[in-house]
Amino acid sequence: MQSLKITLSLLVSLLFLSCTRFNLEKRDFEIIKNDGASVLVTAEIAVTDEEQADGFMHRKNIPEGTGMLFLFNKDRIARFWMKNTPSALSIAYIDYKGVIRDILDMTPLSEAEVISSVSVRYALEVPQGWFEQEGIKTGDTVKNLPVYEEEMHKKR
Protein backbone atom coordinates (compact mmCIF):
# COMPACT_ATOMS: atom_id res chain seq x y z
CA MET A 1 0.00 0.00 0.00
CA GLN A 2 2.83 2.41 0.88
CA SER A 3 4.56 1.79 -2.48
CA LEU A 4 1.27 2.50 -4.30
CA LYS A 5 0.98 5.86 -2.52
CA ILE A 6 4.56 6.75 -3.42
CA THR A 7 4.04 5.73 -7.06
CA LEU A 8 0.82 7.76 -7.34
CA SER A 9 2.49 10.74 -5.70
CA LEU A 10 5.38 10.60 -8.18
CA LEU A 11 3.02 10.34 -11.16
CA VAL A 12 0.98 13.33 -9.99
CA SER A 13 4.18 15.33 -9.43
CA LEU A 14 5.46 14.48 -12.91
CA LEU A 15 2.17 15.55 -14.46
CA PHE A 16 2.25 18.80 -12.47
CA LEU A 17 5.84 19.60 -13.33
CA SER A 18 5.29 19.01 -17.06
CA CYS A 19 2.47 21.56 -17.34
CA THR A 20 4.44 24.72 -18.02
CA ARG A 21 5.73 26.40 -21.16
CA PHE A 22 9.13 26.76 -19.50
CA ASN A 23 11.33 23.87 -18.47
CA LEU A 24 12.00 25.20 -14.98
CA GLU A 25 14.53 23.62 -12.69
CA LYS A 26 12.94 21.80 -9.75
CA ARG A 27 14.45 21.42 -6.30
CA ASP A 28 13.45 20.19 -2.88
CA PHE A 29 13.56 22.87 -0.20
CA GLU A 30 13.53 22.18 3.51
CA ILE A 31 11.45 24.45 5.71
CA ILE A 32 12.55 24.42 9.35
CA LYS A 33 9.69 25.25 11.69
CA ASN A 34 10.23 27.11 14.96
CA ASP A 35 9.70 23.85 16.87
CA GLY A 36 12.64 22.27 14.99
CA ALA A 37 10.53 20.01 12.78
CA SER A 38 11.12 20.17 9.05
CA VAL A 39 8.89 19.98 5.97
CA LEU A 40 9.97 19.44 2.36
CA VAL A 41 8.47 21.20 -0.64
CA THR A 42 9.38 20.49 -4.28
CA ALA A 43 9.42 23.78 -6.15
CA GLU A 44 10.03 24.96 -9.67
CA ILE A 45 12.40 27.94 -9.70
CA ALA A 46 11.30 31.03 -11.67
CA VAL A 47 14.25 33.38 -12.23
CA THR A 48 13.74 35.38 -15.43
CA ASP A 49 11.08 38.06 -15.86
CA GLU A 50 9.28 35.83 -18.39
CA GLU A 51 9.27 32.80 -16.08
CA GLN A 52 8.01 34.91 -13.20
CA ALA A 53 5.30 36.57 -15.28
CA ASP A 54 4.06 33.14 -16.43
CA GLY A 55 4.18 31.59 -12.94
CA PHE A 56 1.25 29.23 -12.36
CA MET A 57 -0.95 30.90 -15.01
CA HIS A 58 -3.47 28.55 -16.62
CA ARG A 59 -2.62 25.63 -14.31
CA LYS A 60 -5.69 24.00 -12.83
CA ASN A 61 -3.99 21.42 -10.62
CA ILE A 62 -1.04 22.04 -8.33
CA PRO A 63 -0.37 19.00 -6.13
CA GLU A 64 0.16 19.28 -2.39
CA GLY A 65 3.83 19.48 -1.45
CA THR A 66 4.77 21.29 -4.65
CA GLY A 67 5.12 24.95 -5.51
CA MET A 68 7.03 27.65 -7.35
CA LEU A 69 9.91 29.66 -5.92
CA PHE A 70 10.38 33.16 -7.34
CA LEU A 71 13.95 34.43 -7.01
CA PHE A 72 14.58 38.20 -7.14
CA ASN A 73 17.87 39.90 -7.99
CA LYS A 74 17.64 42.18 -4.94
CA ASP A 75 15.44 42.77 -1.91
CA ARG A 76 12.16 44.48 -2.75
CA ILE A 77 8.57 44.90 -1.79
CA ALA A 78 7.03 42.06 -3.81
CA ARG A 79 3.68 42.35 -5.57
CA PHE A 80 1.82 39.35 -6.97
CA TRP A 81 -1.57 38.90 -8.59
CA MET A 82 -3.55 35.93 -9.86
CA LYS A 83 -4.49 37.02 -13.39
CA ASN A 84 -5.17 33.90 -15.50
CA THR A 85 -4.37 31.67 -12.52
CA PRO A 86 -7.38 29.43 -11.77
CA SER A 87 -5.84 27.60 -8.78
CA ALA A 88 -6.17 28.97 -5.25
CA LEU A 89 -2.68 29.65 -3.90
CA SER A 90 -0.92 30.76 -0.73
CA ILE A 91 2.28 32.78 -0.96
CA ALA A 92 5.14 33.06 1.50
CA TYR A 93 7.36 36.12 1.20
CA ILE A 94 10.89 35.21 2.31
CA ASP A 95 13.79 37.52 3.20
CA TYR A 96 17.42 37.14 2.09
CA LYS A 97 18.20 35.02 5.17
CA GLY A 98 15.45 32.54 4.28
CA VAL A 99 13.06 33.70 7.03
CA ILE A 100 9.38 33.65 6.09
CA ARG A 101 8.10 37.18 6.68
CA ASP A 102 4.50 36.89 5.40
CA ILE A 103 2.10 34.11 4.45
CA LEU A 104 -0.94 35.27 2.50
CA ASP A 105 -3.78 33.62 0.56
CA MET A 106 -4.50 34.63 -3.01
CA THR A 107 -7.84 34.53 -4.84
CA PRO A 108 -7.96 32.67 -8.18
CA LEU A 109 -8.14 34.93 -11.26
CA SER A 110 -7.96 38.11 -9.15
CA GLU A 111 -6.01 41.12 -10.40
CA ALA A 112 -5.76 42.54 -6.87
CA GLU A 113 -2.15 42.83 -5.75
CA VAL A 114 -0.94 40.74 -2.82
CA ILE A 115 1.93 42.80 -1.40
CA SER A 116 4.72 41.83 0.99
CA SER A 117 4.88 43.81 4.24
CA VAL A 118 8.70 44.12 4.03
CA SER A 119 11.40 43.85 1.38
CA VAL A 120 12.02 40.22 0.42
CA ARG A 121 14.34 38.22 -1.84
CA TYR A 122 12.03 35.26 -2.54
CA ALA A 123 8.39 34.26 -2.85
CA LEU A 124 7.06 30.70 -2.62
CA GLU A 125 3.63 29.86 -4.03
CA VAL A 126 1.90 26.62 -3.00
CA PRO A 127 -1.66 25.29 -3.06
CA GLN A 128 -3.83 27.40 -0.77
CA GLY A 129 -3.84 26.14 2.80
CA TRP A 130 -0.68 24.01 2.45
CA PHE A 131 1.38 26.21 4.80
CA GLU A 132 -1.34 26.04 7.46
CA GLN A 133 -1.83 22.29 6.96
CA GLU A 134 1.90 21.72 7.50
CA GLY A 135 2.09 24.09 10.50
CA ILE A 136 4.38 26.52 8.67
CA LYS A 137 4.27 30.06 10.03
CA THR A 138 5.99 33.41 9.72
CA GLY A 139 9.41 33.20 11.36
CA ASP A 140 10.08 29.69 10.01
CA THR A 141 13.14 29.32 7.75
CA VAL A 142 13.63 27.96 4.23
CA LYS A 143 17.03 26.31 3.80
CA ASN A 144 19.41 26.16 0.81
CA LEU A 145 17.76 28.90 -1.21
CA PRO A 146 19.45 29.64 -4.55
CA VAL A 147 21.48 32.77 -5.25
CA TYR A 148 20.25 34.95 -8.12
CA GLU A 149 23.59 35.36 -9.91
CA GLU A 150 24.26 31.62 -9.95
CA GLU A 151 20.77 30.85 -11.29
CA MET A 152 21.03 33.47 -14.05
CA HIS A 153 24.39 32.00 -15.08
CA LYS A 154 22.72 28.60 -15.51
CA LYS A 155 20.06 30.11 -17.80
CA ARG A 156 22.65 31.24 -20.40
Compose a concise summary of this entry.
The protein is α+β, with helices and mostly antiparallel strands and 156 residues long. It is globular.
Structural key phrases:
156 residues, 22% helix, globular, seven-stranded mixed beta sheet, alpha+beta, Jelly Rolls
Can you offer a commentary on this structure?
With 156 residues, this protein is α+β, with helices and mostly antiparallel strands. The chain has one domain (2-155): Jelly Rolls, CATH 2.60.120.1140. Helices cover 22% and strands 38% of the residues. The chain has 4 helices and 7 strands. The protein has a 7-stranded mixed sheet. β2, α2 (49-54) and β3 (66-80) form a beta-alpha-beta unit. Mean pLDDT is 88; it is low at 3-20.
Instruction: Assess the beta-strand content as a share of residues.
Output: 35-45%
Mean pLDDT: 88
Estimated structural class:
alpha+beta
Report the span from N to C terminus: 44 Å
Spell the H/E element sequence. Answer: HEEHEEEEHEH
CATH class: Mainly Beta
> CATH superfamily assignment?
Protein of unknown function DUF192
CATH topology type: Jelly Rolls
Query: How would you characterize the largest beta sheet?
Result: 7 strands, mixed
How many strands appear in the DSSP assignment? 7
In total, the number of domains comes to: 1
